[in-house]
């Protein structure tokens, strides 16, 4: 590990990326289909003999990454909150926000994450 890297942050970022990767592989094609349900240029879902549902990250680009953030925080990570290295909900939201902003700034996705603050 590089000497200039904060080890605690590096571990948190690594866990976040690995969790997001797993979430995309689990739910990516479902989300992609939902986003393009009424689109004439609807992407093809993998068939039973072709691409595997488990290979979303190997076959798709970064476009859907910001679109799945709610499922990631609210559903995927909540179901796995018992894992020893699971970041807090606040950390998950912050890291997801930063990741999506970075993806957009690097022009890896045209989608932007829009946060909606709830009134108390």
List the helices and strands and how they pair.
Elements: H1 7-35, H2 56-59, H3 69-79, H4 89-105
Helix pairs in contact: 1-3, 3-4
Question: What would you say this structure looks like, in words?
Answer:
Helices cover 51% and strands 0% of the residues. By secondary structure, it is mostly helical. It has one domain. Helix 1 packs across helix 3. The model is unreliable at 47-51 (pLDDT under 50).
Radius of gyration over C-alpha positions, nearest whole angstrom:
16 Å
How much is the average pLDDT? 82
When the domains are counted, the total is 1
Number of helices: 4
Looking at how many chains there are and whether they match, the oligomeric state comes to single chain
**Ranges with pLDDT <50 over ≥5 residues?**
47-51
What share of the residues lie within helices? 40-55%
CA(first)-CA(last) distance: 43 Å
Number of strands: 0
Beta fraction: under 5%
The description of the largest β-sheet is:
none
Outline type: globular
Order of helices and strands: HHHH
Structural class: mainly alpha
């Amino acid at each position: 590990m590089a000497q200039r890297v904060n080890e605690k942050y590096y571990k948190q970022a690594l866990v976040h990326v690995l969790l997001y990767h797993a979430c995309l592989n689990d739910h990516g094609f479902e989300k992609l289909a939902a986003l393009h349900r009424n689109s004439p240029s609807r992407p093809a879902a993998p068939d039973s003999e072709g691409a595997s549902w488990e290979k979303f990250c190997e076959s798709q680009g970064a476009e859907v990454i910001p679109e799945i953030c709610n499922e990631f925080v609210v559903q995927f990570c909540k179901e796995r909150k018992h894992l020893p290295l699971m970041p807090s909900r606040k950390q998950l939201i912050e890291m997801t926000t930063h990741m999506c902003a970075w993806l957009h700034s690097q022009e890896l996705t045209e989608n932007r994450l829009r946060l909606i603050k709830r009134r108390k």
